Fold each of these.
Amino acid sequence: MRITAAVLETAGGPFVLRDVDLEEPRADEVLVRVVSTGICGTDLEFAGFFPTPAVLGHEGAGIVERVGSRVTSVSPGDHVAMSFTSCGACPACLTGSPAYCRDFDALNFGGHRADGSSALSLDGAPVNAHFLGQSSFATHVVAPERAVVRVGASLDLTHVGPFGCGLQTGAGGVFNVLRPGPGSSIAVFGAGAVGVAAIIAASLSGCSVVAAVDVNPAKLEAARSYGATHTVDSSAADPAAALREIAPHGFEFTVDTTGRQEVLRTAVEALAPLGRCGVIGVGPSQDISLDWRSVLNGRTVTGIIAGSSLPQVFLPRLLDLYAAGRFPVERMMTTYPFERIGDAIADLRAGTTAKAVLTF
Ligand SMILES: [Zn+2]
Ligand SMILES: [Zn+2]
C-alpha cells in the first residue's frame, strides 16, 4: 500500500514527507494506522548517522488495520501502543526480560527485519526502517506482534505514543528495578520527559525525598508540579554540595537520565551506603570513571534498558495510572500535525518543549 512517511534522505538532513510503499503484514506482523508518535532523543541521535534513506520514529500509538495469520494478541480495530521488539526465544526473552534480548540491537537498530528485508520501499528501493520495531514517523507501520500492546479502547491515543519508549523507560526504571519503598529518598538527574516519568513514579512509590537535578530552571519548576520535593539547578550551583544539603547521608536511590559521564559520577557519589544508581540515559559510548570508594560501600550501579519492562504487562498498568490522572504526563507534551515534524524537532532541540508528539 501507498503511505506517507517522514523520510531521512541524508544523515543529519531534514525529514521529508514522501509517498512510500509499505508491504502487507507477514504472518507474525500487524499493520497499524498511526494516530500519534512521540519524538525521542534516540530518533534525533540516530538521524545523525543512520544509513539512508531511512524512516525513524519509535513511540507510536494507533489502531490495528490488519493482522498476519499467526497473530493472536490483537485484532483489527484494537487500539495499540508500540514498543521495542525482541526475538522471543533467547534466555532473557523467555524469562520475561525482553529489553535484554541478545538480539536487541540487531532487531531494533538494524534498519530491517531479522531476514534483512524491509517492509518499506521508496521508488522501488528498500528503505532502512523497522526502527525499534516500528518506524512510526509514518501514517502506517508494519510491526511485529511482539512490539504491539493492546490498550483500552476508550483511551484517547493522542498522548499515548510516548509511553512506548521514554515514559516506560523513566517509570519502569523506578517501578521495575529500583523499587523505592515508602519514605525513601531518590535523586533524579535530568528533568526531561524520561526524568519526569521517573519523578512521578518515585512520588507514586511514596518516596519522601524526590530531588530533581537539571540545568534548566523551567524544567525544574515543572518537576515540582510532578512531585519533586527538592530541585537543584546544576548550572548555578555545585550539584554534589546541593544534594548533600538535601540528604546529608546520601540518597538511597539515584537515577541518571542524561547519559553524561560527569553526571553519572555525581549520581553515584550522591548515594548513601548500599544505595542504588539506575543508569537510564544513553550517551555516546565512552569510559566512565569512579573512585574506588564510591562503589566500595555496598553501592550498586545498574544499567536499565526500556525500564526493564515487559511492555505487554507494564504499559497497560502505566496507562491505567495515566487514565486515572495519576501519571499526568500529557501536561509536558506539545502536539504538532505530522507535516510539522521539522518544527517539532526544532522546538525539542531548543528545549521549548519537553516532549513533542506528532498527530495524524
Ligand atoms: Zn526512545
Ligand atoms: Zn531475545
Note: The mean pLDDT is 96.
Amino acid sequence: MWVVATAGHVDHGKSTLVRVLTGMEPDRWAEERRRGMTIDLGFAWTTLPSGGTVAFVDVPGHERFVPNMLAGVGPVPAALVVVAADEGWMPQSAEHLAALDALGVSYGLLAVTRADLADPGPALARARAEIAASSLGEVEAVAVSGATGAGLPELRAALDRLGARLPDPAPGAPVRLWVDRSFTIRGSGTVVTGTLGGGRVRVGDQLELAATGEPVRVRGLHALNAARGEVSAVSRVAVNLRGVPRDRVARGDALLTPGRFHSTDLVDVRLACDPAADLPASLTLHVGSAAVPAGVRPLGPDTVRLRLARPLPLLIGDRAALRDPGRRHVAGGVTVLDVDPPPLRRRGAAAARAGVLAGLDGRPDPAGELRRRRLVRAGALTRMGVPVTVAPVVGDWLADPEHWRDLGVRLVAEVARYARAHPLEAGVPVDVLRRRLDLPERALVEALVRPPLRVRSGRVSAAPVDALPEPVARAVERVRAEYGDRPFVAPEAHHLADLGLGPREIGAAVRAGALLRLADNVVLLPGALDDAVRVLARLPQPFTLSAARQALATTRRVAVPLLELLDHRGATRRLPDDAREVVAPPG
Ligand SMILES: Nc1nc2c(ncn2[C@@H]2O[C@H](COP(=O)(O)OP(=O)(O)O)[C@@H](O)[C@H]2O)c(=O)[nH]1
Ligand SMILES: [Mg+2]
C-alpha cells in the first residue's frame, strides 16, 4: 500500500478528487458535510490499475486548520498537491507547500482540478514552478475534473508511477506509529489509527504509549476495513488496544516498539528557514502527528536548541516543521541533530555546542557519537537512531577508543598515587577508582585493569610489579609514564638501556607480566594486545599490514611481530593474500 496526503488551498477540490478516485467519503463529520468543508483529516483508499492500493490522507485546506493538515502530512512520505484551474496558486497552496518542504517530503504529484471551469495551463505552470523549488522538486502534473471525470485515468496512472518510485519500507524497523485518530468502538474499546511507515505490528504485540511509557497490548488490527493478524509497513492501520481508556491516548501520541525510542524534551536541530537569531522565542514543533510548544534557544547561525513542552519519541535525522501559531505561519523545517544533548551550564558552552552542531548533518554517525559521548550504553545509542558498530568494552558499555585508552592510563596513575598515600593497604578499592575516574559502574573500572595490575577482593593492586626488584619496577613505571598514551610505540633499545632495562631486567618484567615482548628489544605495555584488536576491529575487513600500521600509528618493527602474535593467539586471522581480519573483538 502507498499512502499519499493531499495538500492545497481550501475549496480547490481535494476532497472531491479523493471522493471520485476512491468512491469513499473523506469528510467524515456531519459538520464537514453540512459546511462542504474539510475540518479534520479524512481517509479513503482505492485500487490502482497496477493492482496496488493507494490510501489518501485528505487534509483541510483552510488556514485555521493547518495544524490538522500538519498532523496528516507529518507521517506520510508523499503528497498530492491540488490547485484549482479557475483560482490558481493561493496563500494556502503556498503554506501547504511550505509545510511539505519543511518536513522534507520529496515524492509528489500535482493535480490541477476544476479543469472544466477554466484553462488549466496557467495554474499548472505556476504550481509546477513553485513545487520545483521545494523538497518535492520536479513533479508530474495532471489536469483533472472532479465534475466530468476528465483526466482521472491519467491521474490514476500517475499515482501508480509515483507509488513505484516510493522507497521500500524497512520491514525490521522498530514501530513508531503516530496516532492521528482515537475513538471507541462499542464492545472493542479504544482504537487508534495512523500511517505505519516502517516495521510490522501483530495482534498480541506489546507496544508502548510514547506519552506515558505505559505498555499496551494489541487486541486487534484492521487495514482497509478488514481484520488482520498482522500489518506491515507501509499501511494505514487501525489498532484496537486492550484495556486502555480512550482519554489516555490522543492524536500526537505514538505507539512504539518497547525500549527502542528515547522520549526527549530537549533537542538540538538544524534549521532550513530564517536565521536562528530571527526566530521567535516560542514556536510550535510539528512532527509525526504531534504538535508541541517549543522554546527556541539559538546556538549557531542555523542551529537551535528546542525545549519541548512535553517529551516526544524523536530520532536523530527526524524532520519536523516549526510554525508560529500567532502569525499562522510555517516558519520552516528542522532536522534533528541530537536527541540527548549536553546541558549548557558553563560560560561559552553554547558557542562550543554550536561548533559541534556545525559538523553534524542528521545522518547517524556511530563513531562521532562515541567520540562526543565518550562512554555510552549500546541501547542508548540505538534509541537515538544510531546503529551500534563496535563491540562493548564491558556489559553493554561502548567506549570511544581514545577515551578508553586515556582512562587506562589514568587508572594506572591513580593506583600508583593511592599506593603512595596508603602504603599499608593492599591496593585501591574499586569504588574509589570509579569515583576518581568518574565512571558510572564498577564493571568499567574492572574492565580497565590490565596486567600487571589486577583486581582482588574488590581492590586494584599492582602486586606483581612490586614483586620485581625495586630498580626494575621503577624502570617499568617510567616506561608506563612515557608510553602509556602511545600504546603501540616500542621504546628504542638504547632508551631501554638508558632506563636500566637490559635483557635480564626485561626478562624479569616480561615474566611478571609488566611488559609484553614482541621480539628481541621490542617491548610494549601489556594492554597493547587488546587495544590493538579494538583498533583493528574498526578497520574495513580484511586489512593490510600497512593499513594496520597506520591505524595503530606505529612502525613495521612493531606491527609485524604484533600481528603475528595476534594471529598466534587467534585474535586475527591471516588470509591467503597476506591480508588479515579480526576474528573476535575483545569483549
Ligand atoms: N466544476 C467543478 N467543481 C469542482 C471540482 N472539484 C471540486 N469542485 C467543487 O469545488 C468545491 C470545493 O471542493 P472540495 O473538494 O470540497 O475542496 P477542498 O476544500 O479542496 O477539499 C465543491 O463545491 C466541489 O463540488 C471540479 O473538478 N469541477
Ligand atoms: Mg476538503
Note: The chain has a mean pLDDT of 91.
